[in-house]
Design brief:
mainly alpha, Vanadium-containing Chloroperoxidase, domain 2, 9 helices, globular
Length: about 270
Amino acid sequence: MAEKVIAYAKSDGAGTPWDGRRPAGIGNGPQFWEPPPGSPSPPTEPAAATWKTWTLTSNSQFRPPPPPAYNSAEFKTAAQDVVDVKKSLTDDQKRIAKFWEGAQGSVQPAGIALGVAMADVEKAAAAGTTSSRWTVPQSTRAMALLNITMADGGIAVWEAKYFYWYPRPENAIRDSGVDRAWSPHLPTPLFPAYPSGSAGYAGGVEAIMNYLFPDRAADFKARAEEQAVSRIYAGIHWRFDAVSLEGGRRVSALVIDRVKGDRVGRQA
């Protein structure tokens, strides 16, 4: 099985270097993503938008509609919202932002979401009577559903990020004149804003956990919404970037559909 998975991975396009060219129609003005002020860094993993997926029929299958136009009234309202949020951050909001941060060189947002979900899977495998505990195959299946959802969800988000090349709040708030000296609560990631990768992972994990533990849907919804809003508290996303919450859920529906007939839970 490992050999089959590795063979698949060798042909999925991961690791393909970026050729350094932006797509047609994507320039270098303030309406497009640029690295944070003072950073010469290139964007992170643009080629991930082209990687082969497990369940999607197209990497653009769940691409969201365009974000607000730069300097439009909707954009200015969103920019002021990000500025205002930072001014009134509570200690609890700062804690939430830091917990879900996933900074470069550390555990990434998908890994954080997976780690939180793993605690529930591990509990199902350890709690209760011997006959009611999850078996190793059941636990392994749960982790596969979560990881494949996040893999395809991440690729779908990256496809949209590098289709729109939308600027991050740090640059756009300064460039548009909303606040020329503004900076976020946490460091800005080195790739476009729209849509949010963290929200995409959160939505996908929420839906898979609902499928696995249907009696805890309210808990998982709250967890996903916290992960999505944490990026607003951090000052690194716009509120409309969380459109990928629904995108992640739609990816998870494809994954769940693949396993509906796998006989888990039936008598041998």
